[in-house]
Every structure is written in C-alpha cells, then in structure tokens.
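[SOLVED] Predicted holo structure with S-adenosylmethionine

Edit: marking solved, answer below. Original request kept for reference. I posted the sequence and ligand SMILES and asked for the 3D complex as structure tokens.
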Amino acid sequence: MENIINDYDKFAEKRQQDLINGMKPSHRFVEKPMMKSMLPNLKNKKVLMLGCGTGEESDLLETFGATSEQLTGIDISNKSIELAKKAYPDKEFIVGDMNELPFESNSFDFVYSSLAIHYSATPEKIYKEVYRVLKPNGLFLFSVGHPLRWASEEKNIDDETLRIIGCSKNDDGNKVYGKYHTFEKHVFTSFAWQNDKEVLAFYVGSPSMHFKLLREANFQVLDFTESRCIEEAKTVDMNYYIKNSEIPQFMAFLAKK
Ligand SMILES: C[S@@+](CC[C@H](N)C(=O)[O-])C[C@H]1O[C@@H](n2cnc3c(N)ncnc32)[C@H](O)[C@@H]1O
C-alpha cells in the first residue's frame, strides 16, 4: 500500500486560522469533545503530540495538567511546525515522521494523536513506535476517521448526493455500498464552511482492525469511543448537528503499554 502525499504545508496557515476561529466544525463540535471525554490527568506527565499540526491541541492538553516544558509536538509538515513554533515559543516542536519516531525508547508518559494516524498506510508501524517510546504503563490516546462515515460510498438519490453504507435487503440482491472492512485509501474534497476546497486522502479501517493492530503491538486497549456531535452545534448549524449526532465521524482509542 502506498503512502499518501497530501500537501499539508499548503493548508497549514488556513487550518491554523480556522482552528483558532472555531471554523472547523469537525474539530470544535465532534472530534475535540470526544478526545476531551477520554483525556487522563496529565499533571507531571511527559507528553508527545503526534501529527500536532500547528500545535493548538497543546492548549487542550494544558487544561488537563500538562505544562509547556513537558510537551513535545512532532509533525511531517515544515510549515505547520514553523507556525507552531511561532505561536507557542515555550514548547518543543520538531519536524519528523510518526512512522519512525526520532525519540529514545521509554521517553514519554502519554502520547496524543488527533486525526493524524489515518494518513499512514502502516498504522501497525506507528503503534509499535508509540509502544517503544512510551514508558511502562504509559498511555496512548488517538483518533482516526470512522468507517461508517468515511468508508461509505457516494450515491445520487432523489437529486441529493448521499453517503451510503449498506447492502441489498433481499438475499437475491447483490448490491453493496461502501467498504467497512477494507483498509484502503479514500480521497475527499472538503469545503468546510467556506468555498475553499481542500483535497485530502486518508486511510480508513474498521475498529476491529485497529484493536487487532494495537494488541499485536502489545498494547492493552482501555477505552474506545465513537464520536457524537455536541449540543452547542445546534446553535450554528442544525443539519450538521443532526447528521453528526447519529453517524460517527471519528473514533478514538485509549491504550496502555
Ligand atoms: C488533520 S491534521 C491534525 C493536526 C492536529 N493534530 C489537530 O488536531 O489540529 C493532520 C496532521 O498530520 C500530519 N501528518 C501527516 N502524516 C504525518 C506523518 N507521517 N508524520 C507526522 N505527521 C504527519 C499533517 O502534516 C497534519 O499536520
């Protein structure tokens, strides 16, 4: 399976602005609330942020007790790390690939990764690397796209484009929409709330696939959550709220070394 070449640098500045202004509904109303519900106490913990982008997630981690001196972020995008360093000069940010972490074994108490691991064709490699750099009993919290949403198939029905996952009702029907169990690359065009088009490719796999890979990397899986939109979204976009409270957009795992 080939690795993905997304132009992360091109969108780094725009992504940073959108995050700061709350203009990324999936982060504000869906994914970050899910991560918040699973974060442990980070007081006196040495923390690694994997695929940290422009570093805004460090604000969230600090509300759980992490401190600037204890936080390190790594991202493959030069531009994102440049922006992160400017915005958070008191924290450590480095350019690097999460598939081959440039850290000594047993270095961190906690590894956090928000919507980054699904850009890798080899999550098993990342899980082994995270296991290696965690201290004994260290925790790993990460989120990725949920297949129910992202492995679905686009279909035009009644003049509307739908994302469908399902199959023929009757035994003699042979229609299957979507690929829940196949780990493969999907390409999406995102318009967010503006007209600014961002084309992104990422890999989508089933929860059971991630469970299996985590266990093969020797992790003990402690918790698993499928995202639901928070009520606050109702005041901004009712359709967004309804859709994302019924269909999970993301999922998150908490695992222990
Ligand atoms: C959707 S952004 C998420 C950023 C941040 N975690 C957040 O939630 O705001 C995904 C990030 O993963 C980074 N990324 C993709 N592949 C990577 C890799 N192999 N190693 C490190 N970072 C990677 C991208 O550069 C991008 O900044």
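OP edit: The two ends are 28 Å apart (CA to CA). Thanks to everyone who chimed in.
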